[in-house]
Amino acid sequence: MKKVLSVLLVLLLAVSVFAGGSSETAATASSEDDEFAGLGNYVMMIGHSQPADNPRSISLEKFVEDVEARTNGHVTVQVFGNGQLGTEKEMLEQVVIGTLQGMRGGQFDFTPRLLMFTLPFLAQTREEVTALLHSDLAAKVCAEAEAETGTVIINLCDAGGFRQFSNNRHPITKPSDLQGLKMRTAGMETIDRTFIALGATTTPVPYSDLYMALRTGVADGQENPWTNISSMKFYEVQNYFTEVNYQFHPDPFYVNAAWWNSLPEEFQTIIRECAAEMGTYNDQLVDELQASARQAVVDAGGEIYVPTEDELQAFKDAVQVVYQQCIDSGILTAEELAELQEIVANN
User: Fold this and answer.
1) DSSP code of 72?
2) Which domain holds residue 62?
3) CA dist 173 to 20, 166, 177, 219, 304, Å?
4) Cα-based distances in Å from 32 to 23, 40, 166, 212
5) Are residues 323 and 268 in the same domain?
6) Measuring CA to CA, which of 12, 74, 206, 236 is 20 to 30 A from 170?
7) Over the stretch 173-215, which tens digit does the pLDDT of each residue have?
8) d(CA 326, CA 315)
9) What is the pTM of this model?
10) Are residues 87 and 62 in the same domain?
11) In which order are the strands placed within the sheet that holds 163-167?
């Protein structure tokens, strides 16, 4: 039912504001100095799953302001957050078929090669993450998306920072502590393989349903960055946290390729530039908010365990098998893995 309602909402919005890639209702500048007066008017509807205080939401507010200002109002941006339009997979499906122009989120079902950036313990610093997401390899993987999915990825940024483990049964201080735990995943191959390598079982739960799944025991635990744990209040239904920094996720900005290709080149350039600035701002927010988000967990009574270097190495050793498994499944080649590792080593 939720999916049906979400699709109906998008269709109603599309009928009211979107026709043939443009809209006569978009706000436009009337000045004789309007350099874009003859280019038409366009509406860009964007969906995502995060609440209002999350870096994704805040950075998208900047994107809206920048795009509308720089196009003199000829491109109007409408953002629907907090899962209003469905799960991330459902929103990406809407982008693929064109009822939604864009979405941001760590949804890789249609672009599994992006999972190479989510290998466990691949990166450990902001500089390493930025270098990976801005690399030629990342650009190549994004370019593959249009042919495979009918989407254009116009930016890659950080989906929320390094990711941590939590559960409501006992502290996780070593790999064997995950034995027997039901850990929530989004169906992402690298997360599933990581937890299985550590001895846990996995259960898929959509992000918007995760709080209730943890509360009712559908899952014992989960993994997310501090910013998500805080903004979604997972600390209310989880007692034990381990600051393991085991993974980061790219945050691709998917745009329907047909809509994108209908835009004048001038607007494509502006939107891409604004998306890049939004991505930089997003990552700054992630870095700034992680400490306060972590403190919110502490203030709520959550118990945070920080592994020693030797303890952390035990986790790294236990998940090395995931690298070869991802090569075997076609996510990346051995040569691409070596390229990723070289990028990290040089930053």
Assistant:
1) T
2) 2-159+250-289
3) 56, 11, 7, 19, 10
4) 21, 15, 58, 55
5) no
6) 206
7) 999 999 999 999 988 999 999 999 999 999 999 888 999 999 9
8) 18
9) 0.87
10) yes
11) 201-204, 182-185, 221-225, 163-167, 240-242, 303-305
Say which residue the tokens 């993974």 belong to. Answer: 247
Query: Structure tokens of 137?
Result: 């390899």
Beta bridge partners of residue 165, listed in sequence order = 223, 242
Vertex 344, ends 343 and 346: CA angle to 5°? 70
Do 14 and 94 sit in the same domain of this protein?
yes
Q: Over the stretch 93-148, which tens digit does the pLDDT of each residue have?
A: 999 999 999 999 988 988 999 999 999 999 999 999 999 999 999 999 999 988 88
Distance CA 123, CA 110 (A): 24
Contact 242/164 with Cβ under 8 angstroms?
A: yes
CA-CA-CA-CA dihedral for 102, 160, 235, 107, to nearest 10: 40
Residues 215 and 126 placed together within one structural domain of the fold: no
**Which amino acid is located at 82 in the chain?**
N
Kindly state whether residues 13 and 111 are assigned to the same domain: yes
Measured from the Cβ of residue 218, the count of other Cβ atoms closer than 10 Å reads 14
How far apart CA 302 and CA 242 sit, in angstroms, is: 10
Residue count of the chain: 347
Overall domain count for the chain: 2
